[in-house]
Amino acid sequence: MRRAFSQRLSVCLLTLVLGGPLFAAKPVAAVSKATPSYLESRTVDGQLKRQTYVFMQGDRFEGASVDRTFERTTFREIAEYLAPKLTQQNYWPTPDLKDADLVLVVHWGVTQPRASLNDMTSRVDLGVPGTSQWGFAEESPGINPLGFEQRMYQLEDIAENDAQVIVGAGIARLLGYTETLNKLRQSVLYTDAQYTLENDMRTERYFIIVRAYDLHAATKRERHRPVWTVHLNTASPGNNFKTAMVAMSEAGAKLFGRNTDGVATIRTDAPKGHVEIHDLIIIGEAK
Question: What is the pTM of this model?
Answer without folding.
Answer: 0.75
